[in-house]
Amino acid sequence: MQLPIIKSISDIRKNSKRILEQVQKKNDVVLITRNSDKISVIVSPDYFESMIEENETLWEELEMARSKKATGPEKTYPLEDVLSGKV
Fold it and tell me: Quick one: how many helices (H) and strands (E) in the chain?
């Protein structure tokens, strides 16, 4: 994860075109402040999509881990028993 560039809301108003081009070209992250309070973040569409995809992947992994924990360990059988029909 990259560190955001911090810009005030008045900076955004004055230089929005340049800042938005920078975000799009370099995938920069811009943290917008007002009176030293964080109010918003600007990210490129590509960066946003990658965050969403990563978040979905992490949720899927978490759900799989929870499911495995809830069902307990899986039973394993020797291949010979499966092939011979014992299992």
Answer: 3, 3
Q: Which residues contact 62 (CB under 8 A, 6 or more apart)?
A: none
List, in order, residues 6 or more apart from 40 with CB less than 8 Å away: 31, 32
- 46-78 pLDDT, tens digit per residue, is 999 999 999 999 999 999 888 878 777 778 889
Paired tokens of 27: 């995938």
Report whether 11 contacts 34 (CB < 8 A): no
CATH annotation of 5-69: 3.40.1620.10
Per-domain residue ranges of the chain? 5-69
Tokens for 20, please give them. 């938005």
Compute the distance between CA of residue 50 and CA of residue 85 in angstroms, rounded to an integer. 47
What's the pTM value of the predicted model, to 2 decimals? 0.64
